[in-house]
Amino acid sequence: MKARIAAALAALLFSAISVAPAFAQEQRGPDNQPPTVDGSSRASASRQRRERAPAAPTAEQIQAAAQEQATLANTNCQVTEAKLLGQTEAKTSVYEVACAVGPGFMIESKTPPEASNCVLLAYSAAVLRARDPAADPGPQCTITANTDTQKFLREYAVQAGVACTVDEVKVLGKSNDGGIMYEAGCSDGAGFWLKQLNNAWTKTPCIQVLAESGTCAFTTSAENAAMVKSYFAGSEAASCDVTEARLMGRNANGVFYEAKCAAGDGLIARLNTENVVQQVYPCATAQQIGGGCKLTTAPAAAPAPAGGRP
């Protein structure tokens, strides 16, 4: 009897030892998901993950980091506002910044940083959409201070030395030497082409652009004529009410303009580098000056009398 009781106790003890570890094992969820012990353990793990995640940078930290990138990119931008747009696959950060003076930039924290002017980004997007309205132009500047591109373009015209009242400016594209080309129109006169290269500006009057087979969308023929007429003031050519004008060219002696007059014969005038008239040639006798007049038809030679010489 004692032997049977002892055997039963031994079997019970063996069963308890075998079953206990099974209850202690972590239980797997459906589809072999990572094991959890119970609900409280899951909550604890989630809390730990949150605690390990870095805190989002503050606005001040973003602006400081963006300023560092803008300085390294030689943008001369004093950052007044910045947005962190995210990270690329290469783990570089992308910022948009507004500047105290001039247009803002989109900056990628490469080595060295790569900065894209917001005005030129908007121009590239417009060109792309003109070709394909459904095209994706990529990230664009959205900070309010960066969206008035005409304001910045008018400022460019002032920097380039355009003295007229600028009412329209547009980006033309890149020149062969890497400069950025713009056209500026004036509400009170003829406009210009502008070029920015290596932080220096040059400007070309639209009348010269036309002579070099370019086009100006913001300058009319009448505005070019009025400009040339202003050059004639106080000279032998002042009596010509210029209705049309063209730049013929220049040489060591000066620059040559042809003018069509409202009444009478047209003329060709030679001006110096200060646009002061030096000499005037009536179209009737100016055939040897740069191929002669094109805007004014020279009077035809009188026909010979019938029957031969008088």
Structural features, described:
Helix content is 30%, strand content 27%. It contains seven helices and twelve strands. β9 and β10 form a beta hairpin. The longest helix has 23 residues, at 2-24. Residues 1-30 and 300-305 have low confidence and may be disordered. Keywords: Signal. Residues 26-60 are annotated as: Disordered. Residues 1-24 form the signal peptide.
Main traits of this protein?
310 residues; disordered N terminus; four-stranded antiparallel sheet; alpha+beta; elongated
> Strand share of the residues?
25-35%
List SSEs in N-to-C order.
Answer: HHHEEEEHHEEEEHHEEEE
Gross morphology is elongated
Q: Main beta sheet, described?
A: 4 strands, antiparallel
Task: Give a short summary of the structure.
With 310 residues, the protein is an alpha+beta fold. The protein has helices spanning 2-24, 39-52, 59-72, 118-131, 149-159, 206-211, 221-232, and strands at residues 79-87, 93-99, 105-108, 114-117, 166-174, 180-186, 189-197, 200-205, 242-251, 254-261, 267-271, 277-282. Strand 1 and strand 2 (93-99) form a beta hairpin.
Give the helix/strand layout.
Elements: H1 2-24, H2 39-52, H3 59-72, E1 79-87, E2 93-99, E3 105-108, E4 114-117, H4 118-131, H5 149-159, E5 166-174, E6 180-186, E7 189-197, E8 200-205, H6 206-211, H7 221-232, E9 242-251, E10 254-261, E11 267-271, E12 277-282
Antiparallel strand pairs: 1-2, 2-3, 3-4, 5-6, 6-7, 7-8, 9-10, 10-11, 11-12
Keywords: Signal
Signal peptide: 1-24
Organism: Brevundimonas intermedia
